[in-house]
Amino acid sequence: MLGKLLVALALMALCVAIHAAGVTSAVGWLRSRFPGASRTYWATTALLSGIAGWAILLHLVEIAVWAIFYVWQGGMPDLPTALYFSAVTFTTTGYGDLVLPEPWRLVGGVEALTGIIMCGWSTAFFFAIVLRLYDRDPRAA
């Protein structure tokens, strides 16, 4: 059981690394593309939609990491099933129609906790961008 928990923590660390790289690249892109000029409503909407899409993409990559692991370890029969299970677990929707084999169930719980942390990080990042947008342009409020 301890070995499986260590594997789950390694997968969590990989998700943190993916998210850190993604958020860092988004910050670099934002700084180079939008140096602080005033934006129109549509430009701001496009920017926020792009950031939201980027965050979703990061989450999908992280979900795929867990799914690939489940297939590799025989916890799920195939990749489509594993992707579905992983997405439901990562987002903590938890339908319960699929479950991991008994020895791997704690790993699923760690995935759910990882999903909460990663979604919270994305929310905080998105909120920070919104705050900066409105701080720079008081007319936007």
Key features of this structure:
single chain; 141 residues; mainly alpha; Helix Hairpins; elongated
Question: Would you kindly provide a written description of the structure presented here, covering whatever features stand out?
Answer:
This protein is an all-alpha fold and about 140 residues long. Helices cover about 75% and strands about 0% of the residues. It is built from 4 helices and no strands.
- Described by the principal axes of the CA atoms, the overall outline is elongated
Return the domain count: 1
Number of strands: 0
- The parts where pLDDT drops under 50 for at least 5 residues are none
Secondary structure elements and their pairing?
Elements lengths: L1 H32 L7 H32 L6 H12 L14 H32 L5
Brief rundown of the structure:
By secondary structure, the chain is mainly alpha-helical.
